[in-house]
Amino acid sequence: MIPTVEWKDGVVRLLDQSQLPGRVEILDCRDYQAVANAIRELRVRGAPAIGVTAAMGIALGANAVQSTDRQEFVTAIGKIGDHLASTRPTAVNLFWAINRMKQVIELQPNLSIVELKACLVHEAEAICQEDIEMCRTMGRYGAELIQHGQTILTHCNAGALATAGYGTALGVIRAAWESGKNIEVFADETRPVLQGARLTAWELMQDGIPVTLITDNMAGTMMRQGKIHVCVVGADRIAANGDVANKIGTYSVAVLAKAHGIPFYVAAPSSTIDMDTPNGDAIPIEERSREEVLSVHGSPRIAPEDVKIVNPAFDVTPAEYVAGIITERGVFSPDDIAREFSSGR
Ligand code: MRU
Question: Which residues form the active site (predicted)?
Fold first, then answer.
């Protein structure tokens, strides 16, 4: 599969997800502003992928800094970091990755600017590689929760496209499939931006994993008919109390799952766990443009032009609905997240 994001010959190369599945286009970002625009416009999206891309954006911006004065360099990186951090507020991986990049400079006071620039590229590539490894490990833990013959419902896209590779929720599904389990997936289309229809359906079909696409309002009836055995979704931020922010509509899936006695799992790397956010109410929820609701992926307008619209991009699923959080360290009850992850990531 084409990498979601990579550092290639001094540019940040992205698979432009806004064009999928119709066109497979590569976007080369040559400055950090282009990286920030790509994140804002959902050309690259998904919490882990946003973090990796922002790290590469910092490396890119650092390479363009002319000054050889350390203080001026630090100030410039601060400005680049702030610009990238302003793109999307909910996915904590973005802020985690930016902080990790800044620490490279803080922890190495004796390096020259040339050496620091090389270290920043190295760190961004390490974050990228670690993300793939975390997804694979998480996939192995999560696959143990999936039984042969089961059908899994997922929401949005938490796949290879949403990470540096392999995926979180889809990593679990992929690992179960690779271990020989005969499973099927139901993918919610995920209005308004259709990550399920455009990306999850495409990604699973590329791998030959059986997938059935449903509109978001069909999930309840599929559960009632006994067609769904387990739900697995990703996360944009997990608060210290185990509350989970993920794509809008996730909460509805979790409530429906509980009503039907279906286990609802969240798969996310430790970079998505935010011990500084005590609970879901403290998670900032991104509000996106009215145009996303007013039409369907560039279609003609489907509602009166002046209709009042709200467009929260994420919702919060309270911890009580979550059967388990699948991480690269194992599967935890939401109640155990604080204890397990309080000692840092
Ligand atoms: O708006 P998006 O497409 O960035 O939202 C993505 C999601 O909500 C994913 O489920 C989440 O980031 C987890 S991705 C492994």
Answer: 236 (proton donor)
Residue tagged 């190295």 (tokens): 122
CATH code: domain 5-135 is 1.20.120.420
Three-state SS for 230? Answer: strand
Q: Is 331 within 8 Å of 324 (Cβ atoms)?
A: yes
**Ligand 1 lined by 313 (C-beta under 6 Å):** yes
Q: What superfamily does domain 145-341 belong to in CATH?
A: Translation initiation factor eif-2b; domain 2 (3.40.50.10470)
pLDDT score at 18: 98
Annotated binding site: 45-47, 88, 195, 246-247
154 lines ligand 1 (CB under 6 A): no
Provide the whole-model pTM. 0.97
- The verdict on the CB of residue 253 being under 6 Å from ligand 1 is no
CA distance 254 to 264: 6
- Residue 212 backbone dihedrals phi, psi, to 5 degrees: -120, 125
- At 242-255, the pLDDT tens digits run 999 999 999 999 99
Banded pLDDT at 345 (limits 50, 70, 90)? very low
Residue 188 falls in the annotated catalytic set: no
The active-site residue out of 131, 188, 236, 315 is 236
- Which of 20, 135, 157, 252 for mutating ligand 1's site (highest number of atoms within 8 Å of CB)? 157
The kind and range of the H/E element at 289 are none
What is the residue extent of each domain of the chain? 5-135, 145-341
In angstroms, the CA 163 to CA 128 distance is 9
